[in-house]
């Protein structure tokens, strides 16, 4: 009798922020620009990591709809799906300003965010509470049953996804450390970090 031994391991969710962007270099909030030279270098290293570690036939690659995640995937040599529910937190009227400019020009907004980063909503933009709702929608489209998933996304959205997947409380979300140039691997309740650059 033939027994079908189907692999039953828990599926893996890999998360990487996009490579360093032009906006990261200038400490700018949001924007929709492209990668810095260091971000390009990371994306190429990410391609090597994927080639050596990932079963690409059985992995679904997904990016946000933003230029910096799509460029990272392209340089890493993968053809992702796009999901705009994975786009970075919408900074509304402050999109494209630096943190320093916000502090200088809108001190009360700056302080309000510092005091309650979870609930603070950017003028005409989103709060982390809003983003948690949006990322729950994105998670509904992640296939945890049939394949591994590799998400190339952004800092705030990665914080939300990881908190939801690991069952962390919402108040931990806005301060969570999501290093650049690092592959984060989540399998069940285990999370590991591998810095590539
Ligand atoms: O600085 C990079 C970035 O992805 C911004 O685009 C975004 O607004 C920010 O991180 C989110 O992090 P924080 O909520 O800590 O400002």
UniProtKB/TrEMBL annotation:
<protein>
    <submittedName>
        <fullName>Uncharacterized protein</fullName>
    </submittedName>
</protein>
<dbReference type="GO" id="GO:0006003">
    <property type="term" value="P:fructose 2,6-bisphosphate metabolic process"/>
</dbReference>
<dbReference type="InterPro" id="IPR013078">
    <property type="entry name" value="His_Pase_superF_clade-1"/>
</dbReference>
<dbReference type="InterPro" id="IPR029033">
    <property type="entry name" value="His_PPase_superfam"/>
</dbReference>
<dbReference type="GO" id="GO:0004331">
    <property type="term" value="F:fructose-2,6-bisphosphate 2-phosphatase activity"/>
</dbReference>
<keyword id="KW-0511">Multifunctional enzyme</keyword>
<dbReference type="GO" id="GO:0005524">
    <property type="term" value="F:ATP binding"/>
</dbReference>
<dbReference type="InterPro" id="IPR003094">
    <property type="entry name" value="6Pfruct_kin"/>
</dbReference>
<dbReference type="Pfam" id="PF00300">
    <property type="entry name" value="His_Phos_1"/>
</dbReference>
<dbReference type="InterPro" id="IPR001345">
    <property type="entry name" value="PG/BPGM_mutase_AS"/>
</dbReference>
<dbReference type="GO" id="GO:0005829">
    <property type="term" value="C:cytosol"/>
</dbReference>
<comment type="similarity">
    <text>In the C-terminal section; belongs to the phosphoglycerate mutase family.</text>
</comment>
<dbReference type="GO" id="GO:0003873">
    <property type="term" value="F:6-phosphofructo-2-kinase activity"/>
</dbReference>
